[in-house]
Amino acid sequence: MAKWGEGDPRWIVEERPDATNVNNWHWTEKNAGPWSKERLKELLNDLKIEQNGVECKIVEVDKIDGEASANNRKGKLIFFYEWDIKLKWEGVLAGGSEKVKGEVHILNLSEENDVSEVDMTVTIKGSGEEAQRVKAFMHNIGKNEIRKQLTEYIRSLKEEFSKGLILPKKGEAQVKPDNVSMITSGFNKKISMEPVMSPQNTQIGCKLDTKTIEMSEKFQCRAQEFYDAMTRIEMVTAFTQGHVKIEAEKGGKFAFFGGNVTGEFKELVPGKKIVQYWRYKQWPDQHFSEVTFNIEEKDDHTLVSLRQELVPAAEVEQTRDNWQRYYFDSIKRAFGFGAFL
């Protein structure tokens, strides 16, 4: 961040016609949840699937649980969506006497999965021969038709919520969706990324009792290997055992453990030092601690010293235990750095 008066272009509001989000640098977000529910209902309700003498129809969108949002970070659009959907359907065979009823359960429609990989289960009420033939039709043909509608939902989500998120610079035309770079979140469950604030500025109107945690741990690895375990997405995913978001650069954000831990990198010195603004989800809103990892390679091990300032006093013991259990011990187990366990 530039010092006061140095003229960093991210802060020169005259470069933007509306004087907001200069050069699209800041994280901005639109809630796409309500729109998505309506759009999914439009695409799926009354969907007719007919072929080879079998006629089926989605008669009700019984459940749509989940969330969706569109975000702009550094001029890129990031879409989060995760939906659990249940549909009711009816079908008949040509010349058949029985109306077959059933459900389709769409389990994991999210940005982490291609539509072709989305899990769907088809069930029926009844077990007769006609019912089984209609069920087979829905399993083999019906699911493909539903996937086409889900593909259209994703396309229209990106088109609708590209509008206005990537803002033009002064004198430029509005950015068209076709010219926008689309990337996914990097983790399945959408994380609510709160604005990262400097720790000294997070408490307004009340005084929070805070303390400092200091720990050290020995690892049987090179210093760079520990640094990589904390900054490379595939290694962080391995020891946290879940989807993660991580931008290993100064100012880059991260989110681990299903969004329970979020923050921002303040300083990165490969193989030597990592400094983060770091918060646990249950802490007071927008209160961040500052975490420093000093990484020192010895003759036969690497010593990692952790210092965490501004930890809420009531959370000190639990936070200390969590560092040991979910970071240090997990890293040793995942990568074999654990001779000193």
Automatic annotation (TrEMBL):
Residues 29-163 form the Activator of Hsp90 ATPase AHSA1-like N-terminal domain. Coiled coil: none annotated. GO terms for biological process: protein folding. GO terms for cellular component: cytosol. It comes from the Eukaryota. SMART domains: Aha1_N. Gene3D superfamilies: 3.30.530.20, Activator of Hsp90 ATPase Aha1, N-terminal domain. Pfam families: Aha1_N, AHSA1. SUPFAM superfamilies: Activator of Hsp90 ATPase, Aha1, Bet v1-like. GO terms for molecular function: ATPase activator activity; protein-folding chaperone binding. Belongs to the AHA1 family. This is Activator of Hsp90 ATPase AHSA1-like N-terminal domain-containing protein. It comes from Manduca sexta.
